[in-house]
């Protein structure tokens, strides 16, 4: 299961970039995180297709372990599973029996939850990025940097005129 471990490490790195972008009000970082969320969504859809054996995809092709022969942790330590040592042809191979939920369904549900979180992350990233670009970026103070201040002095809108106080 080395491919998902590497992908999770990359996902954590992009999550840190996204959080940093939100904290620093940097829209490009948030957009990068949003694009990663789309990629993450696709990766988890592929994992779901592998475990549910949709079309010609199957988890037994050993792509998720990068051809090392490792199995999912849930295959041996599933919910309610008991390890049984079965002897076939003079060899003993440990198998699991009595699982409440087969490990392929557990992996698929986990990938489905990641798809939902990736979609929410994409939506929130787009929303935050849009709100950053819609903010009013000009600085205005009394006699400030508004558009007309370089060409004409600011006008007073008050009808009251200042008079010197005589004593």
UniProtKB/TrEMBL annotation:
Keyword check for Cell inner membrane: no
Entry's Gene Ontology cellular component terms: plasma membrane
TM spans (from-to): 5-25, 31-52
Cited InterPro entries: Na/K-Atpase_Interacting
Localization annotation: Cell membrane
PANTHER family associated with the record: SODIUM_POTASSIUM-TRANSPORTING ATPASE SUBUNIT BETA-1-INTERACTING PROTEIN, T-CELL LYMPHOMA BREAKPOINT-ASSOCIATED TARGET 1-RELATED
Record-given protein name: Sodium/potassium-transporting ATPase subunit beta-1-interacting protein
Species of provenance: Desmophyllum pertusum
